[in-house]
Automatic annotation (TrEMBL):
Secretion signal span: none
Positions bound to NADP(+): 81, 132-136, 156-161, 221, 244
Protein name, UniProt field: Shikimate dehydrogenase (NADP(+))
Matching NCBIfam families: aroE, PRK00258.1-4
EC number: 1.1.1.25
UniProt subunit comment: Homodimer.
Pathway: Metabolic intermediate biosynthesis; chorismate biosynthesis; chorismate from D-erythrose 4-phosphate and phosphoenolpyruvate: step 4/7
GO molecular function, one term: shikimate 3-dehydrogenase (NADP+) activity
Gene coding for it: aroE
Keywords for the protein's UniProt record, in alphabetical order: Amino-acid biosynthesis, Aromatic amino acid biosynthesis, NADP, Oxidoreductase
Positions contributing to shikimate binding: 18-20, 65, 90, 106, 223, 251
EC supergroup of this enzyme: oxidoreductase
Domain Shikimate dehydrogenase substrate binding N-terminal: 10-92
Amino acid sequence: MSEKIKKSAVTGHPVAHSRSPLVHGYWLKKHGLSGSYDRIDVAPESAEAFFGDFAASGLVGANVTVPHKEVAASACDWLDEAAQTMGAANTLWLDANGRLCGSNTDGLGFLGNLDQLAPEWDVSRESAVVLGAGGAARAIVWALLSRNFTHVHIVNRTLEKARTIAGEFGSKTIAHDWNSLGKLLGKADVLVNTTSLGMTGKPVLEIDLTPLPKSALVTDIVYVPLKTDLLKRAAERGNPTVDGLGMLLHQAVPGFERWFGVRPEVDDALRTIVLEDL
Ligand code: ATR
């Protein structure tokens, strides 16, 4: 008797642009597995019902993208620490008892990317500067605190949003507006852009990098273009830099492992396939 094919998918609204099928499709083929990974567009009005009765979808698990990460987390019977802290889940699976479990792997994706491309990056963990205060910033603050940064500074145009995140994470996380940036850069070990500035079609991120120590690692979650203006300017002055594509690839690893039982690698061939699709 042939084994039932394990089905998985990315769920969100919209999902047509998602590159996750490319990533999981590559790993399924590489490991000779007979699973599937599709796109399922879940309309906002159907999200509660879809995630509330996830078993009815016939999927063994799924990724969740905007705008459903919070609804998905609420529907879970169990959440890991990251998803609990962020109140948002991007990876779901059904356990042996049919309970819906959720994780948030965005922060792990961020760390996996830096560990792979800049293994020396966390030598000094005094001060991190995170630009932006959206969902991605929340995941990255979680990631930096998990690596024991002493101070994580969130700099955002709308100070209130930075304050909300800082309030969720406690006293090591401090909210600022853009006026404080120069002073903060002077002490930064890591600078992360989580705003949409620098993305193709958006304004460039105009910040003066002069105060930033040359040893500070600069990374951007924007990956279209792969080398943002920020990364180019940082590299020109001698800072180590890491582009954001790997965060997208690494955040997919835990889900694939849960659903298909193989821990996949983010290798050069995968990077090339996704780059060609950008
Ligand atoms: P996500 O949840 O996907 O991370 P988001 O909520 O759209 O993204 O947030 C984008 C981030 O980019 C926000 O921090 C936003 O700042 P505000 O909170 O003040 O809106 C930031 N951002 C976008 N355009 C900006 C601009 N022109 N100048 C400064 N910050 C900007």
